[in-house]
Each structure stands twice: as structure tokens, then as C-alpha cells.
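Example complex used in Figure S2.
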Amino acid sequence: MSFPNPQIKLTVDAVVFGYEAGNISVLLIQRKYDPFKGKWALPGGFVLEEESLEEAVERELREETGVAINYLEQLYTFGGVNRDPRGRVVSVAYFGLIHPDGHTLEASTDAEAAKWFDINDLPQLSFDHSHILDMAIERLKGKITYEPIGFELLDTKFPFSDLEKLYSTLLGRPVDRRNFRKKINSLKILDELDEKISLGAGRPASLFRFNETRYKQLQKEGIIFEI
Amino acid sequence: MSFPNPQIKLTVDAVVFGYEAGNISVLLIQRKYDPFKGKWALPGGFVLEEESLEEAVERELREETGVAINYLEQLYTFGGVNRDPRGRVVSVAYFGLIHPDGHTLEASTDAEAAKWFDINDLPQLSFDHSHILDMAIERLKGKITYEPIGFELLDTKFPFSDLEKLYSTLLGRPVDRRNFRKKINSLKILDELDEKISLGAGRPASLFRFNETRYKQLQKEGIIFEI
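Predicted assembly (454 residues):
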């Protein structure tokens, strides 16, 4: 059988979520070239022949936004026949979580600009990127029920209320404070530090740190984490 | 910017699981052409320019095995640089569940033969297909903890013990019969029929049927289903 030659191109796209002060944001770029020149889009681009999909998405993210992430999870592959005006382009979408504070944005190559957008206040997106983003948001909300998310999104040291706020933001509803603390304690996922922080008028609050070993173990076990 | 032209080809592969009499099997084909001529592999092949990924995987499955499935779920996209000796080939793998009884196998096009193999007694597989299959088995085992799997795998009418056996097979351990029945009852997912079946020496057992409406609703909600 001959090696076929359909003109299908392959891209990767990255949905990178950030969390800060009770808001979830997503990293977008402004396109420098047509199609959709000047419009906002997910960072991403064509896969080169000699790189893996993971290498491609990390490279595109670095080039277009200046952000370096060493862990992106595969989300889904979008292969609709008419999703790109240039021809048949199939895109493998990836999904990552970071704390925006630690990353300086710097657009180059195909991106005119790179910017964080609150997921509740998004511009119109290019291609089928709003569909990809919707699926990533669903995945993020689903994940917090079976994985102890947070490590990538919070500061290294944080008061317990930050973790609680993250969950209530992701769930879109308040969490029962007492049950939440009980649940987190039972997972033995946090180490309480000797440091405290002053938050408003109340007593100074203890700072916590994720226990990375324990956290990775729970992630691997895929524990059920009902809040 | 010009439209790039890396020589990356796109394929789809299907991991179709069947369940019968306490055994989980997977549908494989014997390759008619090189590479791996005469070896076993997952059904699949190159995506055509004018078809979606879903259309491609359904077509390949039909052509190579005679099996028609109208629901396949995307599993993962495998894009390692050296996974195909012919060049750079990225494959989008899909995953489906059927009851083998209702399907007659008929190999054609690129397949010399199509056959069910017990997942505990597999031949050597072509390409990285054993890696793809391993991931599909993990997914299947994971799914039963948060979805009421079974609808696609069991007969239309079945004794309760069949469902219990399916779960214990997938989990690889016995299930606590009493708690399992209680859990299933609380989900209101089964309708008990007026028919009975004789199984061995005991009293005839009632037959059940999945309540499709309720089942699809629970699937959509992505319920936590701890057994």
C-alpha cells in the first residue's frame, strides 16, 4: 500500500489557566498574521516534523507568550473539517495551570501581544478556540472533584482561606468551611508552617505549604475528592 | 506567513472492548501490508481530507472489522516522533465498548483478519499499539468509578449477577454484593422486568434492563460511583 498524502496539517494549542485573588484567567495572544489578524486566540501553532506534540506546545507557548511550563496535560484533539479557513487543520489542545505572578509575558513570533483575561470577561476568539476553552473549563471544574488541584495555582506559602477561595471559585459556589478543612486535613496534603500572615482585622493566619510528595501520590492514585 | 508543509500524517486507531461471560476482550486486526505485515494491530488508518476524525475511525473500523459503532470516545493523541517506521505519523486513538455477540466480524481492505482477544492473552502488537491499549484499559478501569458503565457491554436483559460480575472483572477484585446492590438501587438505573431466568441450581433470577433515560442523565452529570 502506498503512503497516502492527504493535505492535513497539525497544530497544537495551549489553554493555560492562572489563578489570582479569587479570579481564574486564561492566557491569550493577539494574532499578528491572517487569518484572524489582530484577533485574540489561544497560543499555539504548527507542529514541526522533528518535535513531539509536547515539545511543540511548549515551544509555541514560550515563543508567543514567554511562558515556560514543564507540565501540560493533553485535553482533546479537535478535527472538524472546517475549523480553519486555510484548509484542513487538526489541533491537539493542551491544558495547564500556573500562578500568573511568577511569569512575565513577552509576545513574539506570530503573536502581537500576550495577555491574561478573566474567564468571565473574554474577547471574541479566533477559529474554534472558544469551544476549546469551554472544554478546558469543564475539565478544570471536573478535575477538582477527583484530584487535589491547587499546587500549581497557589503561592508556595498560603493561608488556608486561599485554598478555600480557589475551590469556591472553581466550583462557582461557597464551600462548607468546616467540612472543607476536615477533608483537606484528612488528606494530609498540607504542612502547617511556623509563619503567620495578617489578613485584615482578625488574628494572624497560619501559612501552609503543599506536601509535594503526598500531593503527587494522591494525584497518581486519582482519589475521589468530593467537596 | 506562509502555510507550512511539514510531512506529518494523521491516523485514527480504535480500541474496542467487548465483554462476555466474565471476560474483557479487545478487537484486533491482522495487517495485510507492511509495515508489520501479518502482525496484529488495533483497527485504524489514515484520515481522509474530507472526513472528521470520528467519521474516519468509524469508517476504518467498519472496513477492517465489519463492526459498526455509533459512539466512540476520544482517548488520547499519540505523537511520538518515531512511532511509525514510515515517517512521522500522529494517531488519534478512540475507545468504544460493545457486546461482541451482536457483531459479526468481517475483515477487508488493509486487514487480513479481525478477531477478539482476551485482554489477558494478547498477541504482540504493531507500532505503539500495546501502549495505546494499556492507556485504554486504564481509562476503562477509571471510568467505572465515576460513570455507570455497563449499558454498552451487557445484554439488553440481564440478571443482576451479570452486572456484578462485570464490575468485579473490571475492578479485578470481588465486589461486596450487598453494598453493590444497594448502590445500584439508589441510582435508580435499572428496571426490574417481570421475566426470570434460571441460572444453575438456585431460584430463577429476575431479569433487569437499563433505564436509558436515567442512565444517560447520570452519565451527563458525571456522578461519583464508588464501589
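Chain B has a mean pLDDT of 88. Chain B touches chain A at residues 1, 3-4, 6-10, 33, 46-54, 74, 76-77, 79-81, 86-88, 90, 92, 110, 142, 145-146, 222, 224, 226 (CB under 8 Å).
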